[in-house]
Structures
1.
Amino acid sequence: MKHITSVDGSSWTDPDCPVARTLDIVGDRWSLLIVRDAMDGARSFTDFQHRTGVARNILTERLRRLVDRGILRREAAPSGRRQLYVLTDAGRDLFTVIVAMRQWGEGHAFADDETHSVLLDASGLPLARLQPTDSHGVAVDVDSTTVVRADRSDHATP
Amino acid sequence: MKHITSVDGSSWTDPDCPVARTLDIVGDRWSLLIVRDAMDGARSFTDFQHRTGVARNILTERLRRLVDRGILRREAAPSGRRQLYVLTDAGRDLFTVIVAMRQWGEGHAFADDETHSVLLDASGLPLARLQPTDSHGVAVDVDSTTVVRADRSDHATP
């Protein structure tokens, strides 16, 4: 697998932490909305612009960055005249992150009388709720888990 | 359940979309790193400052915002002299989002020879990989799911 091991030549906010690296790569509102729209079928600059409503200069910059970071790749449209932006495997793998955000938003960011978009499976039914579990399938939460820092003592680089 | 139905009096980027609302609420690198650290036991301003390394003025602003948005709440420390920041239920529910980001980062943002922190269950084992599934427990992905927009025609407000 190709790994993303640096961002724009600048250093990671917190090099040992996979959460922090993910945020360095896509932790920006527009970047994740672009990923959301790519998952929902947006391919061209115009698609992304219509769906996000973001300013063209910001969209241009974010698309370039997502390509540089290996989340999207450029493809020529069948007509050959336009460029399309397609999710890479790493980009497709953000599906779980987007689903987790969607489910949190459904639960916490809408009043009872507000409608929202829904993500449906092939039968037209909502997905099951994502639930972190241990390796035996038992539900875990903040209280039953612990972060263990990386041991960097064997690293020559500072 | 108490819902977060507006952000700082400004309008939502994309009012119908739970992903977009979640990003409006916590879609910022520092906010999500603060949530990560709160899940890992950070409680005081100093804890958050040491762990994130963020500038004090930015940290002050982000903590205030996370309190306003119902992700953290302020509590007096037992000594009564310091203020602590504790995750609300909505904040604790972001655990799934953080785990999804962590697992993506583990898979895509580290080279094979790089070490990273790990999230372990009570037995010291890594969590199972989060996998979006349909209501029968069958794995789903980008290709087998569809976003259906909210029907806002029954809404009186524009």
2.
Amino acid sequence: MKRKYSVFLAHVGTFSDRYCAGYSDKRYEIEDLFDRVKSIPLLSAVDIALTPDVIDKKDEIVKNLKRTGLKVASVCMDTTADRIFSQGSFSSLDPGVRRKTLEDAKSGIDFAAEVGTGIFTIWPGQDGYDYMFQADYIKERELFAEGIAACCEYRKDINITLEYKLKEPRTHSYISSIGTTLLMIEKIGAKNLGVVIDFGHAVFGYETPGETVALCKIYGDRLMHIHMNDNYSLWDDDMICGSVHTINYLEFIYWLRRTNYEGYITFDQFPYREDSRDAVAESAKWFDYFESLMDKADMEEIETVLVKKNAVESSRLMRKILMGQA
Amino acid sequence: MKRKYSVFLAHVGTFSDRYCAGYSDKRYEIEDLFDRVKSIPLLSAVDIALTPDVIDKKDEIVKNLKRTGLKVASVCMDTTADRIFSQGSFSSLDPGVRRKTLEDAKSGIDFAAEVGTGIFTIWPGQDGYDYMFQADYIKERELFAEGIAACCEYRKDINITLEYKLKEPRTHSYISSIGTTLLMIEKIGAKNLGVVIDFGHAVFGYETPGETVALCKIYGDRLMHIHMNDNYSLWDDDMICGSVHTINYLEFIYWLRRTNYEGYITFDQFPYREDSRDAVAESAKWFDYFESLMDKADMEEIETVLVKKNAVESSRLMRKILMGQA
Amino acid sequence: MKRKYSVFLAHVGTFSDRYCAGYSDKRYEIEDLFDRVKSIPLLSAVDIALTPDVIDKKDEIVKNLKRTGLKVASVCMDTTADRIFSQGSFSSLDPGVRRKTLEDAKSGIDFAAEVGTGIFTIWPGQDGYDYMFQADYIKERELFAEGIAACCEYRKDINITLEYKLKEPRTHSYISSIGTTLLMIEKIGAKNLGVVIDFGHAVFGYETPGETVALCKIYGDRLMHIHMNDNYSLWDDDMICGSVHTINYLEFIYWLRRTNYEGYITFDQFPYREDSRDAVAESAKWFDYFESLMDKADMEEIETVLVKKNAVESSRLMRKILMGQA
Amino acid sequence: MKRKYSVFLAHVGTFSDRYCAGYSDKRYEIEDLFDRVKSIPLLSAVDIALTPDVIDKKDEIVKNLKRTGLKVASVCMDTTADRIFSQGSFSSLDPGVRRKTLEDAKSGIDFAAEVGTGIFTIWPGQDGYDYMFQADYIKERELFAEGIAACCEYRKDINITLEYKLKEPRTHSYISSIGTTLLMIEKIGAKNLGVVIDFGHAVFGYETPGETVALCKIYGDRLMHIHMNDNYSLWDDDMICGSVHTINYLEFIYWLRRTNYEGYITFDQFPYREDSRDAVAESAKWFDYFESLMDKADMEEIETVLVKKNAVESSRLMRKILMGQA
């Protein structure tokens, strides 16, 4: 099956962390970044995060989209990089911050429409808390839900998608797991509201990504976008897709197929010490390899095994999918 | 504030694990277990889990309740100890197992009414999976929800309470977190359906127990029962309450008070190598100590600090509560 | 490369955990267990754990070894199943328990010699602590080291191998990681003292098993035995080998080859709900598959990639090993 | 007992992470940082990390030390912030990088002597790997050990102290745990080589910090310096000391007293969203509170409880220490 692959534009650039302010001395302009994405086999799109360094370069982005022919998989608002959000965006107790958040969201949604994507992503990384006795969980969650509802109301032709993550940059996020995310979505109830599954966030939150896809199906068919990467199951290491897990991806793809997900697979990784373009190229090759294995697998046989609830049969099936025989 | 404390009757007995079939050579009959609970200061009730070894001793339990004057905090059905449930109870793909599960539930609910508790607890420890490609997540979750709905229908004067846990005995449980639990409750929608928070399950699932209480409040005021113990944040160690965490309990109690929880605090711990009665006595003293600290705390001051969203103030508040001054 | 595969005799039997006293109603006698092992393709040996239920059946074991022609990969003493060890074996503060431990060790070592294996394994699962303020770490560790030294002294023709594990059944073990294990071995200094790597223990202790092999090489070439299974990186799930991880096994095998490990691969898993014989058969097929992939890999190319320290090259190499091409 | 408290000079400044390039718009010069430390009650010293932004300001540091009267608890070399170390410092496969590392170490050691501290700290954050098949563990560890040995050789009047950490910024560090650290120290064997325990690193590596102190005592009395902070047991959250754990600190202090640690307690925390000076002031108050509790505790009684190996007694002891009575 041919998937549509994308990458966050900035993620073919350079990276820093809390210790090292820049792992590379290279500087990539918008144009360079587009060229780098364009050069990666299998990729046909970019995701645009409207961080402070990019927010004023919308025209340049539009120009480069035309120039390269790349599509836009999603537009993602910033609620994390700008320090104004350091104690929350939609959940901020400061009405001024909440106002700015909503304004940013609206202009981001309009930009999404302009660049031809129906997916507008909110990853509320600063909405949460670090310490106990630091937050009024009820009040802040209410404010958060109000803000999201307002985004959904603003423009019904664009889907608002929530990306959950257990922690980081806060020690605790409000939109923490598939459970709390779907719960909020159910309560807001808007049709144009859904989920972004970040494969790595699911894994390090001790979710089984395939089951996460199933949960999205059960509770309102809410899966709208996907971020891809890999990690060691305990932190958002944001590594090259396929470099740690294998079987996990295969089951994930099975459930994507069974629930008819046809959106983009967007690589969202932090290759601090690598050439970031090459790291994305690797991820695409890995994912494509996993897809090719599932192309050869027998979907009906899988369904038959699943209802046997027998781990020996499951193991045999995994080997068969991986080795082409058992 | 005077809490009502209880303990699972069997948990003043003896314990085994997967390596050691019995950490003690003592044998306690039902009568002994009641005497042991009765002897613990601060405790006024028991929780009864209807495991295979107890299920035929209902009369004896009733007799001992009268004899000792102990109340019943909850009745809990067995879906874990009997090997018939090894691949699930309410979610079992075997109609015979599902039928037995529902029958057991109904007779358990009736027993709850008989012994004067309004709380009937279901901890579906075997409902989940161990391996990838082992389960049809959609089908099994649907079956599970149907079974729970039938329990709620059976008798409206008894509250059905779901106890979630991330894992163990399965590597993955369906009722895994406060999020997936409330999601299922919302969908079933019955008024007599709620949540048991096991403090330790919340902690090792990387929830903040105080926030878990708040989530129950937000989504339908669903907190109905509480299990207490402690652990090292990574596994359900089921240790003496207060032996690892401190601040976490204080914030938890704050949210219990703020949301007006007035039910039992039931100790649910596995003191493999200790005298189990004494271990419960310790837990009760710890919890009572935490309550006494919160008695001295200023609830309004706490609320004021929470909306400052300032960790330095939070730290000062914690010290003040703990030390009686800052 | 043809590995020698073995399994713990008891692990083709039945299992229980702290909730369910027996997941199967089948009962296997010693003879049955041997027949089951004998029937598994690829296996040529058993490991014998001298638990209380087996300790008096040495003659029967010897008889069945002859009957089936199976070899013995290792003999493992019990320091966990017998409740006398519930507060430690070699580290026990009770001189009587320490005396029994050493006597058991000596007779176990003799039995190892009798059944023709040079590997005597000690997994000190109860030597550790659960609570803070529960143990005098210095005193207990000294006692433990003295006991191990005495075992090494007893008979120089048998290798004493220590199996480390971060936790369980205690919340904290003394022999917790490859680091603390090698440290103790270095200090005792006996030539016939070494390490058992349990693959799953390494993984859930956040070790990279391949690096663990390298550490054994660096610090005295101490790797003497291997236990195999799989898990989700956070607990000793003891699952079918290959059912969760893939790349991890390949790197592990690379380091086994590079450091010339030629001992047994012993399956040590807990298939609670499965036919345990079939679960072992699956593990053997998985491991053999991983070995066959490494047979096709170019060892020199791998070494070349390792010194490039370039994750993109590493990813390409992994794909090449797995897919047979990159 | 009066402890000597210090803080990393830069940690009363401002912070960034991988998402937000600066959580504060304040800019503190060296002079300001010194003033901020000076203003914190209980603190009498600073630790100086020779990061690229500070390395050329040694004169200014010396001047401000004189001006404020603050002592130096330790000097710490940089092997993390300068991107030249992104694939390792002492373990780098590039001889040029290793040469620079050693030169930096030597000039740092001289600076330590100049500012009157005997503690020179190496935290080799980039020495490790991210991916499997990315590193030759044997070769890199050998290079690392050679470099450390050279540092110890350089000047015997200064203690070289190694700070271990399981992970971050790499997914895996070579100096990962107390075990692997002591193992390397034992092998190098220099008298002026020791350990820095970072309390938080110990906790999120699933060590019990009190036991870690005991291990340093057992294996050569190697504890030379201490970093203090707190976290949720799964990541290096670097929070205000005392804001998460309580009992853990008390046991830690017990073992510090029992093993006669008399060095500095250095606060090493990342208060991204807080006033960093105030966050350190909080930590000092917390730690001092814990010390005051231990002042009142009976050291002999503790020792008596430890050899009972009875968790109920341990729990009672903890309550007694915390509440002043049991």
